[in-house]
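Okay, is this right?
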Amino acid sequence: MKRVFLIILDSCGCGWSPDAEHFGDVGADTLRSCSRSAEFSLPNMIEMGLGNIDGIDYLPKAAAPTAAVARLRERSLGKDTTIGHWELAGVVSPAPLPTYPDGFPEEVLAPFREATGRGVLCNKPYSGTDVIRDYGKEHLETGDLIVYTSADSVFQIAAHEALVPPEQLYDYCRMARNIMTGKHGVGRIIARPFEGEWPFSRTTNRHDFSLEPPAETMLDAISAAGKDVIGVGKIYDIFAGRGVTETVRTHGNTHGLEETLRLAERDFTGLCFVNLVDFDMLYGHRQDPDGYARALREFDSWLPSFTEKLRPDDLVLITADHGCDPSDRSTDHTREDVPLLVLGDVKPENLGTRTGFADVAATVAEALGVPYDCPGESFFGRIAKGENV
């Protein structure tokens, strides 16, 4: 294969994992929740075989599916974007990244205040939209930064763009990234700029500053082999830039799909790694199953325009990194298995339930002919037609 497209429907889980009770997520099922919405319509993915995946018994089964399919079960001890993407790229995390259900300790906040010269507001788990509603006015009055977290391993800083321009906010995030190492090495430091009058609205200038992966990823291996690794959306941020040879910033799913279509028309050799964040950020966390279903429908409607541009030596993998059930009792991520659709010149096999997202990394590396040793097991030889093996 010359080109591989790996597309992540951020948070599109397909049912709680066997260990979900340890995460408080028994019963979570993001895709099933969306399927109950009147906005839900995925004819193209259903034709590919989405309903043939283990456990997805609420969607029609394709008699002659056009894709290989599987259910993927995470091995890492986490349910966040960073750990999910790292495992998809070949790195299993045996321990969860630190979280702060009671807020950040003074040993973190004191050096942060000293570095930024600003005070701190909130310092507790909070919804991103609620926190600017409740603390935005005080932020503008005092100049103090709104610092908050969630159930995930994140240190988030919200600031009004009229008071703290985005580039300055990014500098504050870099300061926090330098402080939060070792036992406080959170997965992501996130800039959350907002604008306007109360109750305020978040802008599209979010930026993530991630912890570097603790081991070599498939991105490192592919780029070291002299091939392209094009990150679309927040891929560069998730991997702290490591192994990414080109990055395409996006403002939401629609823009991400436009850029992916443009890249499908371009000649390159290697991996195009796409993250579509709106599923998670706009709909999962905000408990909006109808919005989530509309976003899925947009993606499904886009697929034919993408697949018609594919070449005989292209491979496409569509999957997710965790769940974020928009109909459960929490706004947090959920511990779920994820669906996998594999398109291209492949045998339309059902690969069953596979233990480990890292199977994706092993498969991508083998498809591109790149040596890469990781905990995953490649299924490329099982689905590839003779001339592609």
Summary: The domain at 106-210 is CATH 3.30.70.1250 (Alpha-Beta Plaits).
